[in-house]
Specification:
This protein is of the alpha+beta class and 66 residues long. It has one helix spanning 44-53; strands spanning 13-15, 20-22. The chain has a domain at 13-52. The radius of gyration is 16 Å and the shape is elongated. The chain starts with 12 loop residues before the first strand and ends in a 13-residue tail after the last helix. The mean pLDDT is 88. The structure holds zinc ion.
Length: 66
Amino acid sequence: MNCKNHPEREAVYFCQKTKQWFCPECGSRCLSPKAYCKFRLDCVIWIQEHERDRAPEKDSVNHTSE
Ligand SMILES: [Zn+2]
């Protein structure tokens, strides 16, 4: 399958709600984040979008060697 918006690109994300495929660029955001979606808990687009948002402190892990 190829991206809905970019027919020349290979799609990697599938929106189960709209049943459409998207490339990494188009699929990096949920199309309608405010709307109810019964597939959300299982949606790779939704999951990776939120993991990106709540991971800014990745490098601030303190090593307590005492
Ligand atoms: Zn695309």
